[in-house]
Amino acid sequence: MLPVSDAAIDEAAGLIRAGQPVAVPTETVYGLAADATNADAVARIYAAKGRPSFNPLIVHVPDLSAAEQLAELPPRARALAEQYWPGPLTLVLPRRDDAPLASIVTAGLPTVAIRVPRHPAMQALLRASGRPLAAPSANASGSISPTRAGHVMKSLGGRIPLILDAGPTQVGVESTIVGVDGDQLRLLRLGPIDLGLPMAAGDKVQAPGMLARHYAPSKPLRLEATEARPGEYLIGFGPVQGDASLSPSGDLVEAAARLFDLLHQADAADTDAMAVAPIPPEGLGLAIRDRLRRAAHRGN
Ligand code: TXA
Ligand code: MG
Question: Is 53 one of the annotated binding-site residues?
Fold first, then answer.
């Protein structure tokens, strides 16, 4: 735990560029930030939080022009951005095809959640690291969001290399999330900014709930496969070698980082079916298994 200073920001930026997650205050809650262009770095967020599934994460950028490199901003979204950024507003926008984001950040969705935070420590880290930062709240999955460095310490201490301490956060609840679809705006999460938008029914669970269907491969997917059957593309792990491997050494961080890319690859391969090797049900393996179960689920 380090009080925020120029030296502390430099150290944090070095860790970010080296692919490590760092806890950093925003005006809403403390976030666990990692380089959004680096799949391994983002997988380490999930590993540290023990998050049971791959929800898409919010990508933090220093200003509107940085946001424009990652996403399309239709006029109504741009107007909101100009009014509320920097601040506790997140916009879910169509992701640009050339955005250099790791696919694990958006969990394979064609959209990306973007926010320009106003906290000076987060602003300083964004500028010093020069990277867009994926950051969920800096707490173990299922526990209460952290508004002080001490909360982060209690929840994640020992699992992350650095916690920047700038005292209690000002806002304390997570940002308002607005989904943007052309000129249509929908409230996806209530938060500090009240835009007078109705909370559209069912939209709250849109991202995590629809992930499975969105991400489901077009071919049958068999789990717990120890060898390929005829006509199957096998994604290996550890000792199970396949057409490609999530991690030949059995490293779950590496496997999580590669998961979405290899599912895409298997789906595009010239085979009728695909299969995935057993993944151990522990740590990050739980999140990987959760995603695989959803991807393998056929029918509605
Ligand atoms: O205030 C905040 O927003 C904090 C600070 C650290 O910035 N961050 C935060 O992140 O609350 P997180 O990961 O806990 O919340 C992200 C939410 C999730 O509910 C997720 O489903 C939604 O944003 N989300 C992210 N990307 C999305 C997308 N492409 N489409 C729909 N929802 C998305
Ligand atoms: Mg959270």
Answer: no
